[in-house]
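DOMAIN: structural biology
WANTED: fold as tokens
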Amino acid sequence: MPLTDPTATGTAWAVRDGLATLDEPAVLLRGALDEVFTRWGTEAGARQRSYPPLLRAEDLRTLDYFRNFPHLGSAVTRIRPDRLEALAADRPAGAALPAPDLADATHLLPSAACYGCFLHLTGTRADTPVLITTVAQCFRNEDHHDGLRRLWGFTMREIVCVGAAETVRAHLDRHQERITAFGAALGLTLDRQPATDPFFQKDGARTVMQLLAPVKDEYLHTDGTAVASTNNHRNFFGERRAIHHAGRPAFTGCVAFGLERWVHALGDLYEGDLVAAHRAVRRAGERS
């Protein structure tokens, strides 16, 4: 089995403080997985896009980010100019940067790849569905870390659909089938379970709707690791960011893949033989 001891050598990955270093077999496996998921998006008609690595705090406020899960946020700031000289003075080795030395944070690292997509689409109007696939380094300030299962920084591939409610639902249904079939082809048993959607206010009317018709499903490996999810945001982003489809606030949905979590699950299944896992992904990808 791959080890998480940061001093270990000859292992597929090492994790320290929720940050992973991958050796070549894990890098190649992650890349092969991303190729499969990217192809699913492009086959569905999605355009590949890349978004900025930082999100403006003022934009995230419009999405209730700081009401729903500020504990996950990783703020980005800079050293205050008037504190540069003091910071250059000798400090104990390994000491953190003191908060008084830092300027107010105006940006955050993304906790999901789709945020950049919806912020970019702000104020747009379309009469036909919009499909986009993107990948991002994402960051979640979790309360604990657990190898590749639960990282502070990780890679997320998403396939986003913007359009009518029925179009979004069909997009999610189609990929639910592909995820299940792909897992089966790999020998992975993925348990589909409803989960909480972080985009909606916990005390809002949408939460009541979610109880009646769950808007997020996760796909769990046998050890409980969620390797993928399908998310129906309804018209939340359409309303908050003035994204319109056919003259009305657009419905949106996304299919998300945690790439390092897939590496973990396949490393578990193939008992650490990531070369064999890589071959299996290539074969299953051709049939998916």
